[in-house]
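Follow-up to my earlier ticket, as requested here are the two runs.
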Amino acid sequence: MAPRLSILFLGLIATSAQALDQLDIPTAMQWYAPLRDRPVIRVGLAWGAEQSAEVREQDATLGRQGGFAAVTGRAWRGERSEVWLRTTGVDVQLDGDAQLPVTGALPDRLQDLRLGGFWRMSLKEGAVVGLDAEVSSPSDKPYSGSDVLAVSATLFSRIPTTGRDGWVLVLRYDTTNTLLPGVPLPGIGYQWMRPGLMATVGLPFTNIKWQPIDDWSFSANYFPIDAGKVSVAWSPGTAVDAPPGERGAWTVSGNLAVSYENWLLADRKDTDERLTFRTVRTFLAGEWSPFPGNRIRLAVGRILLREVYETDSWRNRADNRIRVDPSWYSSVELQLGW
């Protein structure tokens, strides 16, 4: 059976809850996991607050708070295949009086209700194939019209080669993607799995997780445009030769991340434009997972750079962009499984 891929890599190419950047709970970690009696219902809750900070070149401030609630459940399971469904509610409130130079004031609130799921099948040769799809409306007025609807879908496959290595293939379509929205984007990578090392290198993504000694690990990943993370983690009781995804009950990590969110404002004049939050942050996170499928995670960090812009292309953002001074933030995340 195909081993689990890194949660960090999957979180970048997955359809996951969009709220305060780092509060995502990726569901695609299940795409490649072996069929087994894991929790069939999962509930995820998250909340975070970002300190208000001065907007550069404006007499204004900007802060945010909010989070999401998500429910994922297995709807059907056969001998080699299964179907999962999920729903996620997102709510983000903006504080302050910041204004974009061209389009003006930012909305007071952003919300979304995401409906989706995935199907996957394990083939006799050990390969895995599947489809993940979702409909959402990330907007200040969700589901108020067709121009605030978003659709995403990902075809995925893992083809084993020798040992635990294998090819990873994806075809991603996302109408709100920062890189070429609405254009199907192929991805291909090769994954090496050795004791203490798991590396997936390809186009357009890269992910490496290295554990040189017991309890300590280093990970790094990147997915265009402007999505990446490096992390150093200490997890007592995690051996170098532990199976992928298995670790001790406690984990403490130091992280540096670049991320972005895309939203569709209801009253925008150009339907190709997206409101984007681009964030560079560093944070310290602590996580307790008493048993598989359940965890609580606390994070405290510093937003080093926050850019907000509304444009039809990430390459054309200078005329309608604001930058916010550094600020502090914190978040709490709870995941339960039955």
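Run two:
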Amino acid sequence: MWSNKDFRSLGFETWEDYCEAPLESGGIGRSRSYMTQLALTYEKFVKQLGVTEEKVLEIGARKLYSFKDDVNAENIDDFMIKANTMSMKDLRLDIKGIDQDSCQHLKIRTIKRCEDCGKIIL
């Protein structure tokens, strides 16, 4: 629907119109940004890297989308195992090669909170 602009055959002028139109009108009823993320995730993981649709649904398209630029044919198997068992935070640290237990915390920001309004000031 997205890459071939098939939504036009359903009477929608744009991808955004198709995504955000109610289900009753033939649309998807979701935001354009969310549907674009799903389409890009499907294209990368299913079409390019051969991951099954079931595995994408099991792990979660949003999680996979967050790491789509870090995954390739060489690391897909290892990545999918980690994505299935790790939180997004831990997976992000793993991809960056950061071990929290041995981190020396060289990039510390001073965070202050206003005692009146509670706003955090960096």
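The only thing I checked on run two: Residues 18 and 90 are 36 Å apart (CA to CA). Let me know what else you need.
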